[in-house]
Amino acid sequence: MTRLGYGVVALMGAAAVGLGGYGVTGGGAALRLPSLLPLGGLELTLDPLGGLFLALIGSAAIPASIYAFGDAAGARRGRFAYAVFVTSMCVVPVAANTMTFLIAWELMSLASYFLVLHDRQSKGSVNAAWIYAVMTHAGLACLLAGMLLLGADVGSPRFADWRAAAPTLTPTTRDAAFLLLALGFAGKAGVVPLHVWLPLAHPAAPSHVSALMSGVMIKLGVYGLLRVSLDWLGIGPSWWGAALLIAGAASSLIGVLYALVEHDLKRLLAFHSIENIGIILLGIGSAALYRVAGLDALAALGLIAALYHTVNHAMFKALLFLGAGAVVHATGTRNMEAMGGLIKRMPWTAVCFLVGSAAIAALPPLNGFVSEWLTFLALFQNMRLEAVGQNLVFTLGIASLALTGGLAMACFVKAFGITFLALPRSDAAARAHEASRPVRVAMLTLVTACVVLGVGPTLVVPTLGSVASAVLGTAPEAISGDWLTVRVSGQFASVSTAAIAVVLAGSFCAPLVALRLVGASRRTRAYETWGCGRIVQTPRMEYTATAFASPFKRVFDFFYRPTKRLDIEFHPESRFFVERIEYENPTRSIFEDWLYRPALRLLHGGARAAGALQSGSANQYLAYILAALLLMLVLA
Amino acid sequence: MIATLALAVVQIAIVAFGAPLLVGTLRTLKARLVGRQGPSPWQPYADVRKLLAKEVVVSTTTSWVFRATPYALVATLLTAALIVPVMTVRPPLAFAGNIILLVYLFMLGTFFLALAGLDAGSAFGGMGSSREVAVAALAEPTVVVAVFALALRAESIDLGRIVERFAGEPWLAANPAHLLAFAALFIVMLAETGRLPVDNPATHLELTMIHEAMVLEYSGRYLALVEWASAMKLFVFMTLLANLFVPWGLAEATGPIPVLSGALALAAKLAVLTAAVALLETAVAKLRLFRVPELLAGSFALAFLSLMAIFVVR
Amino acid sequence: MLRQLRTAVRTGIVTEACAPVGEVQRIGERLASEIVRLFGRSLAIRQVDAGSCNGCELEISGLTGPHYDLERFGLHFVASPRHADCLLVTGPVTRNMAEALRRTWEATPDPKLVVAVGDCGLDGGLFRGSYAVVGGVADVVPVDAVIPGCPPPPAALLAGLLEALGRLPR
Fold it and tell me: How far is CA A318 from CA A198, A199, A266, A352, in A?
């Protein structure tokens, strides 16, 4: 029965891919049921951008559902919530009016809330689900306010009408709507500083759900931001693009910095989602700024970079979460410090996780490299803009993207190296077993997707280009090229990951052949690791994740503000012998200390003060009624 | 087509076989500067030949990642050798790559080497990996901003096109923005190839090692490949610096005479750079590890200044 | 930096020629064979202190200085036994260091040489017969050559190494 439920969802995903593909290639469709919902009824419209996101949701749902086939224990409960989750996510990109959109949005949030609350016994899970629920509903409040404001101003709840009426909006309405809607969507996408729910909620959910949450649910926040900044409100002022760029730069850096010091494998992946959303926002921000300046070809380039990274991130993040799920299932712990040596016990999972790590670290010739390269190019060409302020913002974006790329590589060396390589650091890791076949199939599907998206950008870019043209309303030629090479802006840059892949493969084999020809010695002997002649070589002598991250903790200590705790237990007979040493070096989150805690304190203070109104005295309540009545008489 | 293929072969041969000579010359120069006779410049070739005849001792803790890494390193560097303009203005793989791809190819090599360091399960390897990726990550922004400054001027990030544009402007060598970008990239070269003052390639103290610590477990033919890859990285970096900032002497056409003159010009430029690096390494002491980020931040400031200079002049 | 450059130019190269000094004891047949030809132009040496008083280490460290300069012959010191071709062992092998020395020898890839330094390396030297000492290096790992002395000066060390490799200029 479990398998039937997930099989149905997988089929639904396949249908979504088909329908989305149809939409991307230009086939439109519409469905209207006026009496089903209040305020305009149920209305669905398929356009290229919506089709792309629909196809993305479907193509991530298929491997996630196949994974659930193989994870019997975790997947039995929550089938219904999972089905509702995927269905409502599929409705969001094709929703065409306020009510349809918001109802699908809320269903998505509720379903994911129940999925995050999967492990009801754990206090951490309950806390995570609570924070997630609060933040997602705060976002919903912003969305509701923004959409109602816009709807009231334009006079209709339909998105198509907003698009048509965009040039006639007053600047105040337009800016207010942008602010409210962007805040709501940014909260869902996990943009800093509204990201605090992400690292709590994603690890608490079961792995196939985390894969979908990280892979596609936060992309719906990106979808909303795309609609708001480039579609529904027409061409806005340049501060929108600058705000998106700065938010993107900040998110990418802060996400990767927190990921570097994280030792919970799934929390590390969640922080990387924040980082990649930041990179997507860099593309969207640059597209918005170029559009304001009238450089439509460059705006299309920025948008294509953002869309490509959206697709890529869904693929490799889902792959990484499924791999992490297999590891957590096999070892029973999420803590990297208790893992190690898994490459020998779980070889397939290790290879899939390695491909995912290389992809997210943007190493050529995989897909992460292509979309980061396109983002770099979109940012590099800001020399065509005249305003020096904008040039500075772009330079900030370039520097932060470069630093993020390097730090992401460092973080995944840590994640893969500590988890899979060397010796097991605990008994659980020593007894780990390989993942079941459905899990392996799911992961291998995503590995294939990553490789194809990386080596074949010439197939993907034209499709994304047509989506970008549909969104921006123009048909400029930013990216050209033939079957082998992608050429950007004429002679500015070109890349051919397929050629690079072939040359890399050839150069890998060349030394093998050369050594054979030269007659090099082929003798190999196995012996222990060199430990300076030490007699006892145990897993305790391996490098730990905390130690690996310590150079970064020192360099960025103004950001992490680490505290040190050292507990030494001496031998009862002599102070010169130590029985136990416990060392902890936790980092503090500046967002919680400086933003959320003061805000919550203020809120509590305000609520306590307002509580004075509820005195319980009937006379006071009668006085309130009298005052309200007098006020209404005066105003009417 | 045949000409491009021939050029590719010649280019790879020059990088692959010239790299040990470069490292050997550097060691000889460093020795002479401190009054020693020093090894012969051809010593690295003898070292590689000897290593190829030795057996390989592989730790039981390691996995296939450890054994694949030397080949992966060589693969990334041979590919990089085809993207960089070595003797001609347009390298054979010019259509396939540019500076950003080059930077990420080096990161691919660092990724695998760092994993191999962790694979042996010793504290030395882990420490080397941790430090190496920290230095690589912190050097990234400098490279990209310096590349951006160059791209502003040349209106392309394609290496061949940048060289073409710069070769047409002889006064560029004295341009302060150009010199600042060169200084920034020179410091990054020292960091990425593990030379003083960032890392001492001749140290025997594991606590002071960055690159060496990751290769402590390699022996025989694997060690030969890793050392050779490290020499090629130095060669490619120096060639990049030489040909981007002093682009005169590169061959426009792909006939044998122009290519030969391009190779000779390259040899002259590399000789100057090698002498400069030898002088610097002899005069400067290794920086304490936690001072290296300050050095890299300084190089970032230089790259940023170069960018500002170009913006202001435009 | 300029001062350094000026000193370097003024002082010039101070390396001395290597002359046959002292004697070297050859043990076994291996030194006359293929192995020596393999290491003719390049020998990586890993120095192992098996309980020495550090007198020999001080002399060995003179080899890397400008006067004796072993690098000109293609010899150099390495940090890891995996990189080494020759183990240069000093000290009488104390009981605490015997196992470590054996593990170092096992970690070195074949073909390899072992050269014992000093009277201690020969048979325990000054500490021969002590309860803490195993004996000479030959009691723990197979030795190919011994350079006697207490301690042997750097000239003797260099000449001994080169003679063991059959490369001493006569």
Answer: 15, 16, 12, 11
